Amino acid sequence: MLDPGKRCAVFIDIDSTLIARDFKVPQRNLEAIARARSAGHAVFINTGRSWSNIPKILRDQLEVDGYVAGNGAYLRLGEQELYRASFPADAMKTAADFIFKDRAHWLVFEGYLRNYSIGNGLRAPNDWQIPVESAQEFLTLSAGDEIQVLAIGPSMPAALEAQVKDVMTVLPMGHYADCAVKGRSKAIGLLEMLDAIGVSRENSIAIGDSGNDLEMLQCVGVGVAVGNADPAVKAHASLITASNAESGVAVAIEQLLFGGNQI
């Protein structure tokens, strides 16, 4: 059972959870995060986005204890990098070759340093994507980078998945698919971060909205679904809070850490 009298850890998804439109974090969410940290609790962002795909305009608004990014491929505690994983280069070449031949799908390679797009990627505005026109151009531009996430739409082609299934996990997201480094997830990254800061699973909170949040909501003391979450996520949540447009993150933090409610 969550005990807000002890140090708790809160893990918050970004898209459709922390934010509603653009990358402006609602003021009430920012105030709730600040209040939690002032009370001695730890607050983390836990996102499917790679490190480079968390835009600076968003990071500049946030004062948090760290990040779990790239579906668990990247862990950052304060200014210290705890963990980095990425896809092997040959699998990225396979994906690029396939998409350029296929032309029916778009693809975004989300790296540690930059994002590279083939076609009309939806995961990041063009001002921080680098469009590439050939597989060789992608390999040249991404040399020295580490690809942490693939976002592909409108879905993952079965023929491509068969070629890369040993190195990635495909997470269907409705109008696209997230592809995570094999063996990594938001839940695994969350548990590793809890170990790093010495907080128990029972005293942790996760807040999310979509399928790639489900595992992390199930591995914490209190899994919270925002009001706009997928029905399957709501069905497995301990608590349903207000929607992202109604500062549901703040509502959950206020209730669980400061409202005296037992969940």
Catalogue the unreliable spans: none
CATH superfamily of the largest domain: HAD superfamily/HAD-like
Structural class: alpha/beta
- Radius of gyration (CA) equals 18 Å
Beta-strand fraction estimate: 15-25%
How many DSSP-defined strands?
A: 14
Average pLDDT confidence is 94
CATH architecture of the largest domain: 3-Layer(aba) Sandwich
> How do the helices and strands follow one another from N- to C-terminus?
EHHEHEEEHEEEHEHEEHEHEHEH
Number of helices: 10
What is the domain total for the residues? Answer: 2
Distance between the termini: 7 Å
Please list the strands of the largest sheet in the order they lie side by side: 5-4-3-2-1-12-13-14
- Proportion of helical residues: 25-40%
At the fold tier of CATH, the topology name of the largest domain is: Rossmann fold
- Characterize the biggest β-sheet: 8 strands, mixed
| CATH class category name of the largest domain | Alpha Beta
Shape: elongated
Explain what this protein looks like in three dimensions:
By secondary structure, the protein is α/β, with parallel strands linked by helices. The chain has two domains: 9-84 and 185-258, HAD superfamily/HAD-like (Rossmann fold, 3-Layer(aba) Sandwich), CATH 3.40.50; 89-181, Hypothetical Protein, Haloacid Dehalogenase-like Hydrolase, Chain: A, domain 2, CATH 3.30.1240.10. 31% of the residues lie in helices and 24% in strands. It has helices at 14-18, 27-38, 56-59, 89-102, 135-141, 158-164, 186-197, 214-218, 231-235, 248-258; strands at 9-12, 42-46, 66-69, 74-77, 80-84, 106-111, 115-118, 129-131, 147-153, 168-172, 177-181, 204-208, 222-225, 239-240. Strand 3 and strand 4 (74-77) form a beta hairpin. It is elongated, with a radius of gyration of 18 Å. The model has no long low-confidence stretch (mean pLDDT 94).
